[in-house]
Design goal:
Number of helices: 10
Largest sheet: 6 strands, parallel
Distance between the termini: 46 Å
Shape: globular
Number of strands: 9
Strand order of the largest sheet: 1-4-3-2-5-6
Bound molecules: pantoate
Strand content: 15-25%
Order of helices and strands: EHEHEHEHHHEHEHHHEEE
Radius of gyration: 19 Å
Helix content: 25-40%
Length: 281
């Protein structure tokens, strides 16, 4: 596996791969890899001839006071894991190259960024859209893979690709869960034993909503109340939002017509956890 730190070298490598008609796949990450990331990596291997995984903890998507400084990092472990998966390139650029002194250009996907997590984290998706644009411009992949756990991010990236005419296919990978249902996330590392147990309320809330829909309940308020009460039964959990929305526009829905996104954000101790499911009638 080649480790590339500089943008110029990454561009050269990518250009060479394309000139040999290799299909380049990108899996963007912020590192501290877990089995969920490795599922994306394995999916990526199947979808092209050359696989690039980027690791960059993107300060621009953290608000002041959020966990940028404490965000878990373990580059040596990540490198070993990616080597074992047969990744071709680990792209690990320094912050000064990605955001050189005087940087003042950002990418905003306006409407999709204001709902859900965007309401609590105002510049978060501007940071995500900006780094994803930069990675697409540098690596120029034909395919890029994103997890469905970050559903709003996925929709924003899809819209960004459409609106800015990027020639990249966006692949959504289903959320990878622990055996007991907890969605895998680097931030699960913040959870103590009791908090880890309490965190199961997110996937349980989604399951409860899925059961209601199976029984024919399509009313948004009832579904939200049921999911919310599942989370609120857990004393360590603090609901940030429980929303039922259109899966493409992310506008709130009062009832499920065809399908609806049920999205949750919950604080448990130091961790802010998100999860979601698409409910189909
Ligand atoms: O999902 C993530 O890990 C990040 O938001 C991403 C897409 C790598 C951009 O920093």
């Amino acid at each position: 596996m080649r480790i590339i730190e500089h943008i110029a070298e990454m561009r050269q490598w990518s250009e060479a791969a394309r000139s040999e008609e290799r299909r380049v796949v990108l899996v963007p990450t912020m590192g501290f890899l877990h089995e969920g990331h490795l599922h994306l990596v394995r999916d990526g291997k199947k979808r092209g001839d050359r696989l690039v995984v980027s690791i960059f903890v993107n300060r621009a998507q953290f608000a002041p006071g959020e966990d940028f400084a404490g965000y878990p990092r373990d580059f040596d472990r990540d490198r070993r894991l990616l080597e074992n998966e047969g990744v071709d390139v680990l792209f690990h650029p320094p912050v000064e190259e990605i955001y050189p002194e005087g940087s003042q250009t950002y990418v905003t996907v306006e409407e999709l960024s204001i709902f859900l997590c965007g309401a609590q984290r105002p510049n978060h998706f501007r940071g995500v859209a900006t780094i994803v644009t930069k990675l697409f411009n540098i690596v120029r992949p034909e395919v890029a893979i994103f997890g469905e756990k970050d559903y709003q991010q996925l929709q924003i990236v899809r819209r960004l690709v459409r609106d800015l005419n990027f020639a990249v296919e966006i692949v959504a990978h289903p959320t990878v869960r622990e055996r007991d249902g907890l969605a895998m996330s680097s931030r699960n590392a913040y959870l103590s034993g009791d908090e880890r147990q309490a965190a199961l309320c997110l996937s349980q809330a989604l399951k409860r909503a899925e059961c209601l829909v199976k029984k024919g309940v399509l009313d948004g308020a009832r579904i939200i109340a049921a999911a919310r009460s599942e989370i609120e039964a857990q004393p360590l959990a603090k609901v940030e939002y429980v929303r039922l929305c259109d899966p493409v526009t992310l506008d709130d829905l009062e009832e499920i017509r065809n399908s609806a996104l049920l999205a949750l954000a919950v604080r448990i101790g130091k961790a802010r956890l998100i999860d979601n499911t698409v409910l189909k009638r």
